[in-house]
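Open question from group meeting: does this chain pack into something compact, or does most of it stay loose? Before anyone orders reagents, we agreed to write out a predicted structure and look at it together. Recording both the input and the output here so the notebook holds the full record.
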Amino acid sequence: MAEYLIKNGFVFDPVTGVKGDKKDIAVKDGKIVDSVSSSAKVYDASGKTVMAGAVEVHAHVAGPKVNEGRNYRPEDKLFGTRAGVNGMRTTGGFSIPTTFKTGYAYAQMGYTVVMEAAMPPLYARHVHEEIRDTPIIDEGAFPVFGNNWFVLEYLKNNELENTAAYISWLLRATKGYAVKVVNPGGTEAWAWGLNCLSVNDPVPYFDITPAQIVKGLIEANEYLGLPHSMHIHANNLGNPGNYTTTLDTFRLNEGFKANNRFGREQTMHHTHVQFHSYGGDNWGNFESKSDAIMDYVNAHPNLTIDTGNVTLDETTTMTADGPFEHHLTELNHLKWANVDVELETAAGIVPYVYSPDIKVCAIQWAIGLELALLAKDPMRCFITTDHPNAGPFTRYPRIIKWLMSKEAREERLTTFKHADKVISATHLHGLDRELSFYEIAQMTRAGPAKALGLMGTYGGLAPGMDADVVVYDINPEASFTPDQIEQAFTAAALVIKTGVPVVENGVVINNGNKRTLWVDAKVNENPQVLRDVEEKFLKYYSVSLNNYEVKGGHYIPNPYAIEVDATQ
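Structure tokens returned:
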């Protein structure tokens, strides 16, 4: 590979503790190095900001519900379709972009790693086919476990080792990365026309509660010592007053200690917390409870979160929380699709418009920003939109603008149709904090990478790490407008991905050499679990076990397997 030298930029890197110093970054053989030869290609980053490639901890970008969303929302393709340039493919879609646009748009913003947040194991081959078709960005996928029949039965019987063995088998079979939990027990209850709205509601047939599922999966996750903590979308999403359920879920994490062989210190990651921070008991007195949520998060270092910021766009909601999506279509009366996945999960899809003229939408917008602005440790609070649920990932630059500029927030806040009511129901108007470039690097680079157990490879600019380097055309020492913040983070001046320039002046110039991240978890041979898997496939699944597993290079581009040995 060629050598590169990015000279004279203002570097922000939490991994090495550099906070805006002028510094040269050297790249050789796909890695950050101390120095390069005189033949290295030089990029002059004078007056510009330099960071590591950004890391997306939670998005829905590949798999059956994403593809179903594309199929049943052809109107979404009316937004932003453009022909390919410089040998790149034609792209389309706004809230559900094509695979090509997904890779290109993330790269243009400086993202080099993206995690698909909810992979139905039965459809893992499809997920990996879409990941393979997505250019540039490295990707991993989180299999869903919170409504899986094997898990429910093992945890009901307090069989920790069997639970861990099954998780290990499924991660290898699906080439998955982490343990994901969506509405624990509630999605299984949806098959019976029910839901679980609290951590203590019983799951029909299985005689278990969400609390038992969550605690059991945290324990199994740490028994295995997986790179990422248990990653949860809690019960009661999207309802007024649900912040109490969120706090109850947080408390289930108390007392656990991280098996931090990968450097993480947390045992729970709670995703898209904006959707779980609601006060009031109806939509009339709906209000923000971000202060109560962040008081807890700030006081408990074994917890990480991401924000789930509302972007005030038309979008497409999609989640493995099937009962919530049915509830949503009853609220907005727009079209709805539901996909049940045998023995494993279910998913719903509903379009949604976050209108600034609707008080509830404006309050949701404020809550997402409040979470980040109230975070005392930016290494444990990450910027997301739960793409595409609260808005498309392409709005990250706009969210960064709002977080870095009180002027930009106030301009939006005070021009809402119901501004006075929104201000009285939220805390945003009284928050003067403006995030720094360093804090943005913590929330979008080093923090997510550490939480995912990837700090040694991604999220920083230390020698030996992957050479994912981004240059933004904004001078942190000069005056700049809020719109210049958004523009800079929308179209990076330079993106080097694993030592290969892939974006120059906001234009994609190379498809790069992407990888798929997955965990090769190993435990002692467990004949009981293998017998259980074979039996249930024969009795209940409509596919054979031989057609279930993801195998070989046909699905996996240049795999990056992280080995975990939990054998005793």
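Observations to bring back to the group:
The first helix runs from residue 64 to 72.
The chain has two domains: 4-51+458-508, 52-451.
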